[in-house]
Write a structure and sequence with these properties.
This protein has a single domain, classed as Clam (outer membrane lipoprotein receptor (LolB), chain A). Helix content is 19%, strand content 46%. The chain has four helices and 13 strands. The protein has a 13-stranded antiparallel β-sheet with strand order 6-5-4-3-2-1-13-12-11-10-9-8-7, covered by helices on one side. The N and C termini lie far apart (75 Å). The relative contact order is 0.17.
Length: 244
């Protein structure tokens, strides 16, 4: 009996990486299936989400557009004027008119990081190995009382995301991000809820994001999601093609 227990303990010590890899891939597969399945996720060529944004007393409308592969455009609209950030698959740029500047500017590599992550229309867990990310199951944790699997995703760029996946529905409830910006690690968290099905794929219609541990969050209330709209590549390219 003791010999049998010793062999089991030895196996657990020698092969934990193998067991963990199998388990994390199983959970990720269930997450993909819960979102609608790989085939339906891959069938989405473009996506546009529109809705309301709030941060304290500040209110605005927002539009987020994605196009395969790895293109994104985000607009924050106030009284008909839009602040824009976009990534065309190679470089990020922005237009910030509220300070009186209407010319586009290139974004630094650090400032483009979050856009690059959001430009992944499938989500970072889909085909994560082919993207040179590494996934590890680090246990269980709760999000507002809901039991979740906690997955550590080490991104190819060196940043780290922790995915909290509902142990029952297998949908994302929260993602915590450790992002290195100009030598300083920024800790962010995003919570997801009110999932709705659009063309066979489930999307969160309630999103909160902010600095981890801080009570004040920015809130996105999605009102409409449209998929496979005709979106020109020019929507994502910097006007003029060069920084002003």
């Amino acid at each position: 009996m003791v010999h049998t227990l010793w062999r089991l303990a030895f196996a657990a010590a020698v092969f934990p990486v193998v067991f963990s890899a199998q388990t994390v891939d199983e959970i990720i597969a269930k997450n993909i299936q819960a979102r609608g399945g790989l085939e339906k996720i891959k069938a989405v060529e473009t996506r546009r989400a529109t809705g309301k944004f709030s941060a304290g007393s500040f209110r605005a409308e927002f539009v987020q557009e994605n196009k395969r592969p790895n293109k994104i455009r985000e607009e924050m609209i106030i009284q008909g004027m839009a602040a824009t950030q976009a990534y065309d698959g190679k470089k990020g740029w922005q237009v910030q008119p509220f300070g009186g500047r209407r010319d586009p500017d290139l974004l630094s590599a650090d400032d483009t990081k979050s856009l690059v992550e959001e430009a992944d229309i499938d989500g970072q867990l889909v085909d994560y190995k082919n993207k040179d990310h590494r996934a590890e199951l680090v246990g269980h944790d709760s999000v507002e009382g809901t039991d979740c699997y906690k997955i550590k995703l080490s991104l190819a760029n060196g940043d780290v995301c922790y995915y909290y996946i509902d142990a029952d529905s297998f949908l994302d409830l929260k993602v915590e991000t450790e992002r290195n910006i100009r030598g300083t690690v920024h800790y962010e968290e995003t919570l997801y809820g009110d999932y709705e099905e659009i063309n066979g794929v489930y999307y969160p219609f309630a999103i909160e994001t902010g600095t981890k541990g801080e009570p004040e969050h920015q809130r996105y209330t999605v009102e409409k999601v449209q998929v496979n709209l005709p979106l020109s590549d020019a929507r994502f390219s910097m006007p003029g093609g060069v920084a002003k």
